[in-house]
Write a structure and sequence with these properties.
alpha+beta
């Protein structure tokens, strides 16, 4: 894999990663290597997979609501995503994550 950094535009809610700023609305601008983008894509895929599992769990009446490993998995993976965006993001991305208190919540969980 190539180790030079490229600019990417990230939309967290949809799990989108694009090199085009005009392709769709985006939340964060980051500079990342190919390996870092592969890792970020894996995190987005993990959230999607856990979300599907949670959908099925929500429709199973005999499973207690507080027994919700899927939501815990999504929360844990979202923390990894935001940490990665914070580390790779431009100053605007870092400032947004700081002002929303996301980094302090992530650091509390460690």
């Amino acid at each position: 894999m190539e180790n030079s950094k490229k600019t990417y535009y990230i939309t967290v809610a949809q799990g989108e990663i694009s090199q085009l700023s005009t392709a769709s609305p985006w939340d964060f601008k980051i500079e990342a290597t190919d390996d870092e983008i592969i890792k970020l894509r894996q995190y987005f895929d993990e959230v999607y997979s856990a979300d599907i599992k949670g959908f099925y769990r929500a429709h199973t009446p005999y499973v207690q609501y507080h027994y919700d490993r899927e939501n815990d998995e999504i929360d844990d993976t979202n923390q990894k995503i935001y940490r990665m965006i914070y580390e790779l993001g431009d100053e605007e991305a870092k400032e947004h994550i700081r002002t929303q208190g996301l980094m302090s919540r992530i650091e509390e969980q460690e």
